[in-house]
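Figure 2 data, in text form.
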Amino acid sequence: MDVVFGLIPAMLLVGFLAVVVFIIMGKTGQFDDLDGAANSIFMDDEYEEDERTAQKEAQQQVEQQDKNS
């Protein structure tokens, strides 16, 4: 029975700390954008290599058009 008298205050303290942490997280903006991470998988990533490849291809097309003209 003595253990229960120690566990009840300990569990109340842990529960109170969990509520405080939850409130702090809410105030700091942790839960502001819940859909952003979920929808980010549908967006294409833009990498520098892709941009460089696209620029090279565009330049090659322009050069080919100039040769054909």
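Caption note: The chain has a mean pLDDT of 85.
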